[in-house]
Design brief:
Helix content of chain A: over 70%
Distance between the termini of chain B: 55 Å
Number of strands of chain B: 10
Largest sheet of chain A: none
CATH class of one domain in chain B: Alpha Beta
Oligomer: heterodimer
Strand content of chain A: under 5%
Helix content of chain B: 25-40%
CATH superfamily of one domain in chain B: P-loop containing nucleotide triphosphate hydrolases
Radius of gyration of chain B: 20 Å
Number of strands of chain A: 0
Number of domains of chain A: 1
Distance between the termini of chain A: 47 Å
Number of helices of chain B: 10
Order of helices and strands of chain A: HHHHHHHHH
Largest sheet of chain B: 6 strands, mixed
Largest interface: A-B, 14 and 25 residues
Number of helices of chain A: 9
Chain lengths: 258, 271
């Protein structure tokens, strides 16, 4: 009996949060059109959210690419197919790893930062203060951060894929002796713009939307205490990672499932 | 009895519940225009909640809240925000925006709501900061301010748009005697020089009584007593006497409601 009651309470709580999250998203999206008149707010947030994430994205992309290059070279060599490393690396990165890893890294760095910032603004009554100054925090604080995060993820995903491809090139060509022209020719032959690159961009746009929504919502919905903000940042990482991985499966099935 | 046009805030039959707990139970309250009205009562009686209800950040379960003749809970989002441009609120924490300096904090409402040239914004902000004695602190960040200074900056920001009403939420809490004296003087001078209607929520009896024209005592979701500070100080009500004189026990019990002490001790902490 206790178990059923507990499960019921949790289910109701989850649905309530989902409802709040959707209403919150609606109000956030309603605030976006006015932002184009105040583009400075977006530029500020693009710098804070996007540019500040660049270092970790570039470094992690370089190592991901190098590991990928090393593993693929050794594996493909067993089948005498090491020439195809360029195409396999690019397809893996552009279709899957670029969008997915970027969204997860983004959630861990910029997402948690957004959640903590908004949560602390709530805890220190800054959002309430804005409301009482007749400034809507949804339009002034939430919408610019949401839009900047959403726009940043696809751009960062493209940068991630590009840097990782260079990382794999460095290992395969620079260290393991593969011919440079083979690496690029294979990539050029087997990577299709529409099917691979565009689908990868569509994925990262979807992941950016999810990552941005979760980050700003968790901050706004946080219990305004230090513990509440701490838990909200954890939820941002966990919910974004699981949502991105789940959504990736669905999108992959739709795009490449045959 | 006040005339209709003399009343800035009129509350009638207002009840408010939060998480199943009744915070206000059918209260009536009038805030006269151009006067300093204090809402006093023990901690946790919902004084800050009352300010949020007046400001439209919360909606009552039932009853009416009118500000300047407008029914606040029924206002559209747009109309509510228009009304708020005529209100100022001083939060207990100051609620200053932590990523911009003092000058920009005070300029914030002007930048958001007006298209004034930069030179005029500069002059207006300096005038407001000068009024609270912090013209020289414009470049400081909120983290560099003392509690008293933060509240004075918040006060400068609250009067930036020349509101007709200001709500002060516990302005004296945690202040040293000098800061408290400055805040008392500022609230009093703003009210008298600009004719601003002021609502001061506080449990600091002595300071509030020196500036308030009228006082409401609130506890247990009801208005327990009301009158001028002199009337309340000479009240025969046990509750009013306990609160105004700071007696530890009386109608408001010293102990939080609990089970029988003897039973709890003999129970050894079980159950």
């Amino acid at each position: 009996m206790w178990l059923i009651r507990n499960m019921g309470r949790r289910a109701i709580h989850s649905f309530q949060r989902l409802g709040r999250g959707n209403l919150f998203l609606f109000h956030t999206l309603m605030g976006i059109p006015q932002l184009f008149l105040r583009y400075r707010l977006i530029v500020q947030q693009l710098f804070a959210v996007g540019v500040m994430s660049l270092t970790i994205i570039v470094v992690s992309a370089a190592f991901t690419g190098m590991v990928l290059g090393l593993q693929l070279f050794n594996t493909l060599q067993n089948f005498g197919a090491e020439q195809s490393i360029g195409s396999v690396t690019a397809l893996t990165l552009v279709r899957e790893l670029g969008p997915v890893l970027t969204a997860i890294f983004f959630a861990g760095l910029a997402g948690t930062s957004l959640t903590a910032e908004i949560g602390l603004m709530k805890a220190t009554e800054q959002l309430s203060g804005m409301e009482m100054m007749a400034v809507d925090p949804m339009r002034r604080v939430i919408a610019p951060r949401f839009l900047a995060a959403w726009v940043s993820v696809p751009i960062l995903a493209l940068i991630f894929s590009a840097v990782a491809i260079l990382g794999a090139y460095f290992v395969a060509v620079g260290l393991l002796g593969l011919d440079s022209s083979v690496y690029w020719t294979q990539m050029q032959s087997y990577v299709d713009w529409d099917e691979d690159v565009v689908n990868g961009i569509i994925k990262s746009v979807a992941f950016g939307f999810i990552a941005a929504w979760i980050a700003v919502f968790e901050g706004h919905d946080a219990i305004p205490t230090s513990e509440g903000v701490s838990r909200a940042t954890i939820r941002t990482v966990v919910h974004t990672s699981l949502s991105v991985l789940g959504l990736d499966f669905i999108l992959t099935s739709l795009m490449f499932g045959g | 009895m006040l005339d209709e046009q003399d009343i800035m805030v009129r509350i009638r039959g207002m009840s408010f519940e939060y998480a199943g707990r009744k915070i206000f139970d059918n209260i009536d309250l009038d805030i006269p225009r151009g006067k300093i009205t204090a809402i006093m009562g023990p901690s946790g009686t919902g004084k800050t909640t009352l300010l949020r209800l007046i400001g439209g950040q919360l909606k009552p379960s039932q009853g009416s809240i009118q500000v300047d003749g407008l029914e606040v809970p029924k206002l559209s989002h747009h109309d509510l925000y228009e009304l708020r441009k005529r209100m100022g609120m001083l939060f207990q924490s100051g609620a200053l925006l932590s990523d911009i300096n003092v000058f920009e904090n005070v300029a914030f409402p002007l930048r958001e709501h007006t298209r004034l040239p930069e030179s005029m914004i500069h002059d207006l902000v300096l005038m407001k900061l000068n009024a609270v004695g912090l013209r020289g602190a414009g470049k400081l960040m909120p983290s560099e301010l003392s509690g008293g200074m933060a509240r004075r900056v918040a006060m400068a920001r609250a009067i930036t748009l020349d509101p007709t009403m200001i709500m002060y939420d516990e302005p004296f809490t945690g202040q040293d005697p000098i800061s408290m004296g400055i805040l008392v003087k500022l609230i009093h001078s703003l009210n008298h020089s600009l004719g601003i209607t002021s609502i001061v929520v506080s449990h600091d009896v002595a300071e509030t009584a020196t500036i308030a024209d009228y006082v409401y005592l609130v506890s247990g979701g009801k208005v327990i007593d009301e009158g001028t500070p002199e009337q309340l100080n000479s009240s025969r009500s046990e509750w009013t006497t306990q609160f105004m004189q700071g007696q530890p026990d009386g109608p408001i019990p010293f102990h939080y409601p609990a089970t029988d002490f003897r039973d709890e001790l003999l129970g050894g902490g079980q159950g």
